[in-house]
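Input.
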Amino acid sequence: MSDETKEILQVPTEAELTASGPVAQSSEEADKMLAEDKTKSKKSKAKHAKGKEATGALHVIGLAACQRHGLKCVWVTDDGQCFDQESNARAHAKNLGGAAPLKVEA
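Output.
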């Protein structure tokens, strides 16, 4: 071990942080922050719904491929291509620049 002295820092507890009280702000600033939070919330909900619709469509495509070809599961890429092997699907998805393929089981 070295002979260096180590400085120990005290981390404030949750109770100490809340005891100091909230930060004072004007009502205008509070209204502005509330409006920004609501806008962000609406945008994130819209993105989530859009992503869910896309995933649902890919899921339907995957189920159809499973039924047509008699497979237990397939991997579907963002462009709707279905693969019976995950490695092939990942390689194709990498070329698309999209997310990982979706696994769909029949």
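Strands lie at 73-76, 82-83, 102-105.
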